[in-house]
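Supplementary Text 2. Reproducibility record for the structural model of the 581-residue chain.

All settings were left at their defaults, and a single model was retained for analysis rather than an ensemble. We include the record here because the model underlies the residue-level annotations in Supplementary Table 4.
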Amino acid sequence: MAQKVADMMWEMLANAGVKRCYGIVGDALNPAIDALRRNGKIEFIHVRHEEYGVFAAVADAYLSGNPVVVCGTAGPGVTHLFNGLMDARKEGAAIIAIAGDVETKLMDSAALEELNPYKFFDTACLYIGRVVNPEQARAVITTAILTAVIDKGPTVISMPGDIAAAKASDDSSHEVAIPATPVFRPADADLDKLAAMIEAAKKVAIFGGDGCRDARDEVLQLAARLQAPVGYTFRGKQWLEHDNPNAVGMTGLLGYGGAYKAIHDADLVLLLGTDFPFPEFLPGDDVKKVQIDSNPKHLGRRTAVDLALVGDIKATVTALLARVPEVSDKTASRFLEKSVAETSSFHELLQHYVEKGPGIKPIRPEFLAATLSELASEDALFFVDTGTACIWAARHLKGGTHRRIFGSFSWASMANAAPNAFGAQLAYPGRQTIALCGDGGFTMLGLGDLLTQVQRKMPVVQIILNNESLDFVKIEMQEAGVVPFGVDFKNPNFAKVAEAMGAKGIRIEEPGDVREGLAVALAHKGGPVVVDAVVDSYALSLPSHVPFHTVEGFTLSLAKQVLTGKMDSVIKTIERNIKLV
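Retained model, structure tokens:
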């Protein structure tokens, strides 16, 4: 039997390291899916919604380091892929989308479900290839694979059914030469310039992001040598916080500790592998800044920098260490001690609702998150929905050598946590995978594909912060000085719904039941668990540095709520956030 184009495609993808394809089948995809069945080397993960499949694939690819395939049929199916592909681009995940396409004879004729892949996917994807002739198939497939793997982002192969079923070119090879990750750093002259800037500064601070993923040891060694406090983004927390005596927390809307003050009081700030998107929390021109990143597009776009260097953080810092001596200046020592002390003081404040948690009803989310962190395994994989789940995770989930925390940190999509955890469980079978979900996010996307988890008996733990509101949006409205509107909704008993769908359901309403409920959920191995945790809808969490416009807006919002007859809500907000002694 002559090999078809679709057969060649799957063979090339398998040889490139693809192990799974997430998606939903459909008519335009039928020849490609039939070839996937014949191939047998790549597992097909049927999901109930294509967007769920892409979010699962993003976590799978990011954590495993392997390329992952997603698929959707022509028109409506592929449009459901878009949001997840945007997340893949922002988070740096090697995703290859197989997009069903109308037959070549129907192209550009406004056929049913016809969609121009070049226009539609342009914003989300690094490469889009439309296979319209078997002779070009190998070139398109190779480019899609290499772009995804090397540039760490999503690509698209648009595959019409007639081309997928056509005979492949006789000289088509199944091999794709995947190059090893190159090691690159700035030129010696640039590193010498950076070393001179460090030597001239009495107080150096480090602010690191996900680019420090493979450079933890080198960054911590540099920080120790310079007596530099180390702040980090949410994406950088898992690499730079644990077992780091120089750690000073995060800045930004989720901020805690002494990070904000440290980077503003420093003479020189080293921005390492970060594209931190909130410039109002970064220092101004009175502080010298050096940014190092493997992606030149990140340099200087969030804040003006005095020196911009392109390079891998591990290779660059390794070369820099050979150029900078150990700092013995007492100014640097005092600067570090002060920053660490401020961080310790802030952590004591964070512990208030954790320590008082067993006696406070409704359940404080801080207490829930801290208890979860304490009970979870040392190699747990945590996934957080965008919203207040990120606040509690950033502040109360403790990292570790083998723990990981992941979310839609750069795209900020709703509803990512449950599918992320599902994809991680497929990549790491049996490893503890925990999704900290908002109730809005879980009902948006997680609930339907709970059936997928049940069908596959996946031990995924989903903990729902049930406060019957889009809580983070409510806070944003208050910060903007407006009366919260359109953010409240009614939830079912998620535990009962989960049980009806075949999963294990646990509902926690009493603070005294938090520890036992979470322990039971984490110990369950027979399939998915849904923990319906009824938490305080009035719980607030301000960052360590609050801009004046935030205070002004929040105060104005409370005044407007009083004037519009919502005095009861204002009183509860105040009462529920006064420290209980």
